[in-house]
Amino acid sequence: MSKALVKRSSGGTGVVPAVCSALLPGLGQVVNGEADKGVGMMAVYVVAGASVVGAIPFIGWVAGVFAGATWVVSVADAYIQGKRK
Predict the structure, then answer these.
(1) How far apart are CA 32 and CA 16, in angstroms?
(2) Comparing C-alpha atoms, which of 84, 46, 83, 80 is closest to residue 63?
(3) What would the DSSP string read from start to end of 40-53?
(4) Do 20 and 32 form a contact (C-beta atoms < 8 A)?
């Protein structure tokens, strides 16, 4: 898509992408136009979350830490990138 057709205001708020990422990690990146990064974050979150729920009792807590860290990084990155655009 041509960037000439997209009207951008200076100084975005970043709140909408951050809320989207809070609901589903990676969704805020997709809203910001960074689909590859968003799909990657969604994949990491889903795999880590499934590992917590799955039959990995001894390392499930490690997967939980990864899932939580992915959520925090996703929300923060969506907010920061939304402010820049």
Answers:
(1) 9
(2) 46
(3) HHHHHHHHHHHHHH
(4) no
